[in-house]
Write a structure and sequence with these properties.
Blueprint: H1 5-17, E1 22-26, H2 31-46, E2 58-62, H3 74-83, E3 86-89, H4 100-120, E4 124-130, E5 147-148, H5 163-181, E6 185-190, E7 193-194, H6 210-221, E8 223-225, E9 232-233, E10 236-237, H7 238-249, E11 257-261, E12 267-268, H8 269-277, E13 284-286, H9 288-299, H10 308-311, E14 331-332, H11 335-343, H12 353-365
Helix pairs in contact: 1-7, 4-5, 8-12
């Protein structure tokens, strides 16, 4: 188990639905620091103290995916080899901006280290990827309406301009290469991760999340373009998603397959705007020209740093100077995944007003908006 935002929720799900011993890789200056970080992170998300489980049901290793053998000693590697049957690889750099070198190091080469560890020690791998490898939401996208199934990878998508998507695409290639060598693995392509269905809680580094930054941009701009309001967007609650991850991980019948784990119940942007306005956000629907003028105005002010979420999505073409398309541009197919989840008795939630209000309440609570 590699602990991140998804990882801590996978840990929670495993603790509550199994009796297995869980081995967690946690970065830290020392092993004591790694244990403290895990305890604090779990306390932050679930308001529970798991100190009594450390060194008993939860075994913490101090290491990093950036090093071969994840930085573990020979003795600890022996423990892993003798006791660990499955690695759930959730660690990733999830920002959508920055230098590709950083993303490649963490997301691609980090995955290579994990896949190699699994292959060399006959350990099964559950690799957490992203549905964005399909090319969805990428600004410069020519292959619209092409089908992207669980068996697809490269369909001509232009992922080079998005450092995150590029690195996750390359990471999948690494896992598939090791699967060809004999590694037993599952690849889970996750949708747009959002706050928990239960209470709206989201990752503590919320400012680095691309999707939440888009919502903040709308609030700061106080408007959206009229050509955006009927577009449909997806919210994949982290607690529902991690339940799917664990259900599939428990079943060897799902091995050596790829799954598309995202919420199929979309919601239109205009509905999200209506809910935001019920919190006195006062977001107006304006013409494309007014929207463009507003972006230019804010980009020259001290608030410019708060609108990068939308600026990164702008398609500055001659046809539409401020075209933003949050609809699924690629026809993502997931019938195979849905059949598996039906067999495992798990369904996605409806994206309704009550859920969106939970997300907004949390964003306000942590002073994000």
């Amino acid at each position: 188990m590699l602990i991140g935002f998804i990882g801590i929720h996978v840990l929670h799900e495993l603790l509550n639905t199994t009796a297995i011993k869980i081995y967690c890789l946690v970065r830290g200056k020392t092993i004591s620091n790694s244990k403290e970080r895990l305890i604090e992170k779990y306390k932050f998300y679930f308001n529970e103290d798991i100190s009594n489980l450390i060194d008993d049901r939860i075994i913490v290793f101090n290491g990093t995916i950036l090093k071969e053998d994840i930085g573990l000693s020979t003795a600890n590697l022996k423990i892993i080899k003798e006791n660990v049957k499955t690695i759930i690889h959730t660690a990733a750099c999830v920002k959508h901006y920055g230098e590709y070198e950083e993303f490649n190091k963490v997301n691609t080469e980090g995955t290579r280290n994990i896949a190699k560890l699994g292959f060399n020690n006959n350990i099964r791998l559950i690799h957490i990827s992203s549905i964005s490898v399909s090319g969805n939401y990428l600004v410069k996208q020519d292959n619209r309406n092409i089908e992207f199934t669980e068996n697809s990878l490269y369909i001509g998508q232009n992922y080079i301009d998005n450092v995150y998507v590029h690195s996750k695409f390359e990471a999948e290639k690494v896992v598939l290469e090791y699967m060809e060598k004999g590694l037993t693995a599952q690849i889970h392509r996750i949708g747009i991760l959002a706050g928990r269905l239960s209470d709206g809680v989201f990752q503590n580094n919320i400012d680095e999340n691309a999707f939440y930054s888009r919502i903040k941009s709308m609030v700061v701009l106080s408007c959206v373009s009229e050509n955006m309001i009927n577009q449909k967007i997806e919210f994949t609650p982290v607690d529902v998603c991690t339940k799917d991850i664990v259900l599939l991980a428990k079943n060897s019948i799902a091995d050596n397959r790829i799954f598309h784990l995202y919420n199929h119940n979309f919601i239109e942007i205009k509905e999200v705007i209506e809910i935001l306005n019920s919190f006195d956000m006062n977001i107006k629907i304006v013409s494309e020209k007014e929207f463009k003028d507003r972006i230019i105005e804010i980009s020259k002010s001290k608030d410019s740093k708060f609108i990068h979420g939308i600026i990164n999505d702008l398609n500055n073409s001659k046809e539409s100077l401020t075209s933003i398309n949050y609809n699924f541009s690629v026809n993502i197919k997931s019938e195979y995944t849905q059949k598996y989840l039906e067999l495992l008795k798990n369904e996605w939630n409806e994206t309704n007003k009550n859920y969106i209000k939970k997300l907004i309440n949390y964003m306000k609570k942590v002073n994000f908006i």
